[in-house]
């Protein structure tokens, strides 16, 4: 049959598109009805019969027989003489059904049909992919490195879907080779025109949370709950965990013997240092735990200002602040409180902002970025540490230290 041959030629690419035949036939009917509207002005009097099992399609045009010379609408009516060429016993007023061969539509119309069909199938595919990945946002996904660009890595999954891993969503130590598998979470799905752009992230806190679910059975089973995750990708993270079963030690279960359980997660994240702490509603205890590994001597909480003054022994201050100020910054993000660190036994300290007449504001901001916002907190650190962590010139840091020391000498 001519129709069957044509349908097969139209659908020859369907296997590459992962579209089932029934859906393809529905799209075909829609495409052909549009073609009929263009050629005849209306498709109301056409029956389209689809056989998805055989991949066959028939088009029948229904018209009313009228006397010769009385046709007003050629699409709806047919002259008696023409009707009797189809069946010799037709009479005026009867309905005539005549099969329309696709080839009768003309070569141009068939080419247009094919283009329209391809467009509709792409539209269908894009809608399906968009919905599929919208439902996967926040979930871990694995795909293979296909192409490495300067600002992004392009991945392909098993179904050939393209996934983008932008530079800003990569851990600083990430290094990819073509063909290797990469894990991350589906961060978002954007529509660029009609095409979905699937974006992966390895830096989102949710990625670390999902790794806990995937790697630690008690978290997956719901026996342990991950309450909050904060991280500086590739450097340090803090994870607060809780359990409603008093018999379970949530931190011990997550870390495992000698770190055996968390080791795989640390390796996946480029040796990111992960602190796992017990969550508690006791705010004082929670802030103390958040500043681990530093040992807090005492603290004063201002709940209204969301600020806390933490007092530590001099040797614990650097631990509380941590390399690059990461520890104190993450502790603040985990608890939701701005943390000010003070040496125990030193009654007076001065905010760095008090020195704004002598120290430029942008210099003070550099110290604040690493968690040092008082004179004593700066003076507690070595000169080399301050130069390295703030990216300030040694001469500038030396001048700041001189100014601060003078304050306390006075």
Q: Class of one domain, according to the CATH hierarchy?
A: Alpha Beta
- The percentage of residues in β strands lies in 25-35%
Q: How many helix segments?
A: 16
Radius of gyration: 36 Å
Derived structural class: alpha/beta
Record field, number of beta strands? 15
**Approximate helicity band:** 25-40%
Global mean pLDDT: 85
Largest sheet: 5 strands, mixed, barrel
Query: What's the CATH architecture of one domain?
Result: 2-Layer Sandwich
CATH topology of one domain: N Utilization Substance Protein A, Chain:P, domain 4
Shape: elongated
Show unreliable segments: 1-6
Overview of the molecule:
- With 410 residues, this protein is an alpha/beta fold.
- Among the domains are: 2-132, N Utilization Substance Protein A, Chain:P, domain 4 (2-Layer Sandwich), CATH 3.30.1480; 137-203, Nucleic acid-binding proteins (OB fold (Dihydrolipoamide Acetyltransferase, E2P)); 204-279, 2-Layer Sandwich (GMP Synthetase, Chain A, domain 3), CATH 3.30.300.20.
- 39% of the residues lie in helices and 26% in strands.
- It has helices at residues 2-10, 14-17, 21-40, 80-86, 107-134, 205-215, 217-220, 250-255, 263-268, 283-290, 314-321, 326-335, 361-369, 375-379, 383-390, 394-409; strands at 46-51, 56-66, 77-79, 95-100, 140-148, 152-156, 162-166, 181-192, 195-201, 224-232, 236-243, 273-278, 296-302, 307-312, 338-343.
- The strands form four sheets. The chain has a five-stranded mixed β-barrel. Strands 1, 2, 3 and 4 form a four-stranded mixed sheet that branches. A three-stranded mixed sheet has the order 10-11-12, with helices on both faces.
- The longest helix is centred in the N-terminal third of the chain and has 28 residues, at 107-134.
- The N and C termini lie far apart (104 Å).
- Residues 1-6 have low confidence and may be disordered.
């Amino acid at each position: 049959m001519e129709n069957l041959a044509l349908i097969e030629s139209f659908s020859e690419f369907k296997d590459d598109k992962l579209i089932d035949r029934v859906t393809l036939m529905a799209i075909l009917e829609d495409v052909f009805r549009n073609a009929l509207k263009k050629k005849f002005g209306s498709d109301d009097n056409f029956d389209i019969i689809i056989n998805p099992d055989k991949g066959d399609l028939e088009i029948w045009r229904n018209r009313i027989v009228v006397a010769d010379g009385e046709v007003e609408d050629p699409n709806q009516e047919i002259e008696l003489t023409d009707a009797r060429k189809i069946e010799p016993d037709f009479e005026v007023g009867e309905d005539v059904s005549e099969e329309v061969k696709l080839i009768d539509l003309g070569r141009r119309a068939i080419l247009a049909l094919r283009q329209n069909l391809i467009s509709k199938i792409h539209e269908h595919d894009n809608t399906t992919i968009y919905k599929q990945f919208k439902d996967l946002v926040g979930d871990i996904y694995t795909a293979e490195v296909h192409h490495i660009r300067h600002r992004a890595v392009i991945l392909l999954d098993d179904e050939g879907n393209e996934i983008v891993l932008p530079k800003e969503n990569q851990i600083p130590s990430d290094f990819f080779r073509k063909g290797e598998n990469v894990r991350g979470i589906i961060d978002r799905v954007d529509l660029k025109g009609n095409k979905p752009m699937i974006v992966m992230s390895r830096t989102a806190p949710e990625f670390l949370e999902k790794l806990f679910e995937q790697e630690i059975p008690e978290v997956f089973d719901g026996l342990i709950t991950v309450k909050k995750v904060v991280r500086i990708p590739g450097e340090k993270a803090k994870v607060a965990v809780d359990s409603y079963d008093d018999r379970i030690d949530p931190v011990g279960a997550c870390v495992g013997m000698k770190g055996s359980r968390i080791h795989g997660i640390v390796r996946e994240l480029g040796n990111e240092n992960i602190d796992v702490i017990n969550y508690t509603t006791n705010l004082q205890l929670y802030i103390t735990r958040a500043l681990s590994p530093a040992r807090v001597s005492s603290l004063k909480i201002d709940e209204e200002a969301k600020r806390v003054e933490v007092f530590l022994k001099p040797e614990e201050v650097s631990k509380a602040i941590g390399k690059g100020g990461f520890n104190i910054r993450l502790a603040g993000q985990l608890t939701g409180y701005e943390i000010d660190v003070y040496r125990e036994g030193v009654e007076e300290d001065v905010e760095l902002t008090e020195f704004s007449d002598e120290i430029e504001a942008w210099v003070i901001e550099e110290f604040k970025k690493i968690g040092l916002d008082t004179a004593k907190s700066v003076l507690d650190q070595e000169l080399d540490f301050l130069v390295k962590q703030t990216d300030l010139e040694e001469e500038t840091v030396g001048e700041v230290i001189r100014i601060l020391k003078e304050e306390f000498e006075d």
